[in-house]
Amino acid sequence: GEDVEQSLFLSVREGDSSVINCTYTDSSSTYLYWYKQEPGAGLQLLTYIFSNMDMKQDQRLTVLLNKKDKHLSLRIADTQTGDSAIYFCADGYSTLTFGKGTMLLVSP
Amino acid sequence: DAMVIQNPRYQVTQFGKPVTLSCSQTLNHNVMYWYQQKSSQAPKLLFHYYDKDFNNEADTPDNFQSRRPNTSFCFLDIRSPGLGDAAMYLCATRKIMGGTGMSTGELFFGEGSRLTVL
Fold first, then answer.
1. Whose CA is closest to A98, among B38, B2, B44, B96?
2. Contact A42 B50 (CB under 8 A)
3. pLDDT (tens digit, 9 = 90+) per residue, B42-98?
4. Using omega within 30 degrees of 0 as the cis cutoff, is the peptide bond preceding B8 cis?
5. Contact A44/A36 with Cβ under 8 angstroms?
6. Shortest Cα distance from A87 to chain B (angstroms)?
7. Which of residues 8-37 of A touch B (CB under 8 A)?
8. Looking at residue B33, what is its pLDDT?
């Protein structure tokens, strides 16, 4: 499969914005995804962006897509302690390839 | 209500003793996936079923098998678990439209089955 790269760790204070970055290689992806995983649980879809879009906003979440650079980012506004989790980006068409995940730690 | 249900949530087995993990879905999705996730690693696709068609990833060990007796159920069989097979096993489903192959996009994951090998 194609490679998906993410930074492994991000620490922010409650109320700050968090930005998690991802680079991908599969240019055939129709959608690109952000999933959230809490300890001991499965993956939960946070949001996804269609590959012909540059930006998608969904409440506190903003996804930016730079197709030229194959760069995807997830911005979480007003980050809360409940946002602490591992965030995975994923790309692909019939099957998805996941990055290793970014652990977001939100401190009070 | 949970839409993708995995059983058991926790499985402890002995080295070499076969294990079966199950996944059921109420979404009537035509594609079902099994991923293996080890600690601090990305979920790794083992195989998937597109309807009844089985698709094995090239690097999935022969030790791992799968069955899909009907749309709702899919099983992961580990014939002779080794210590390196200890992991979280994630089942996911997806609806892919026929003909165009277009998908609604989202994979729905179960809560996972954590396998410990002693």
1. B44
2. no
3. 899 999 999 999 999 989 999 999 999 999 999 999 999 999 999 999 999 998 876
4. yes
5. yes
6. 10
7. 30-31, 33, 35
8. 96
Question: Which chain A residues are Cβ-neighbours of B45 within 8 angstroms?
Answer: 1, 95-97
pLDDT tens for each residue of A54-89: 999 999 999 999 999 999 999 999 999 999 999 999
Cα angle vertex B85, ends B82, B90, to 5°? Answer: 150
Total Cβ atoms within 10 A of residue B68 = 17
Residues of A in contact with B105 (CB under 8 A): 30-31, 33, 48
Q: Looking at the complex, report in whole angstroms how far the Cα of residue A78 sits from the nearest Cα belonging to chain B.
A: 26
Nearest chain A residue to B107, by CA: A45
State how far the alpha carbon of A25 is from the alpha carbons of A56, A69, A97, A101, B82, in Å: 20, 9, 10, 16, 33
pLDDT in tens, B96-115: 876 555 555 678 999 999 99
pLDDT for B103 equals 58
The rounded distance, in Å, linking the Cα atoms of B61 and B56 is 10
Contact criterion met (CB below 8 Å) for B33 and B45: yes
Question: For residue A98, which residues of chain B lie inside 8 Å, CB to CB?
Answer: 35, 42-43
The residues pairing with A62 across neighbouring beta strands, listed in sequence order, are: A57, A75
Copy the structure tokens of residue B32. 């079902």
Tell me how far apart the terminal alpha carbons of chain B are, to the nearest angstrom. Answer: 34
pLDDT of residue A1: 46
Question: Which pair of structure tokens corresponds to residue A55?
Answer: 């930006």
